[in-house]
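Supplementary notes for students who missed Thursday's class. We covered one full example, reproduced here. Read the sequence, then the structure, then the short commentary at the end.
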Amino acid sequence: MQLKLVNGSGALQVSEAAFGTKFNEALVHQVITAYQAAGRAGTKAQKSRAEVRGGGRKPYAQKGTGQARAGSNRSPIWVGGGKTFAAKPRDFTQKVNRKMYRGAIRSMLSELARTERLLVTDGIQLAAPKTRLLAQQLKAWELPSVLIVVEASDEKLVLAARNLPHVEVIEVPALNPLSLAAYDKVLMTVGAVKLIEERLQ
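Structure (token representation):
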């Protein structure tokens, strides 16, 4: 299959195995959910009534005070008491094997290509690392919300893009399902496309 070039005539021939597979919605959903879950810190912690300080003796007599019975001033219903179902640190990660992860990436790239949201460029040449220059270039290509995937680190491009709210620049090794789903369109350099083809074979 072929991908459209935004800065020039013609198209780039790409592998059907990487960019022409059937869209698997269930797999993509599972992988994105697992990716988000893996980003959670899981460090929330609270104290139960057994762990909170104090509450060693009965606060007042069982009868004769006119108040409800109380055995501890660290009961969950008292101010300063422990939590009934105290939160504890936990690991939210979900197991996703390599074959599933690559299958989801392959499925997402294929759907982007099918819906003409995946574009290719020979390269983004900036005279200086200026946000204005990149904004003008993206406006000319009609890309207000775009994920730019490059094969190698480009300091000028990164500096120019970091202040644009709906633009992100990542390298091929950092390509992830959440970024692919977050933007209207994906713009890849020719070198990035070749690297992705090698990784997804």
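Commentary. Residues 98-114 form the longest helix (17 residues). The chain has a mean pLDDT of 91. If anything here is unclear, bring it to office hours.
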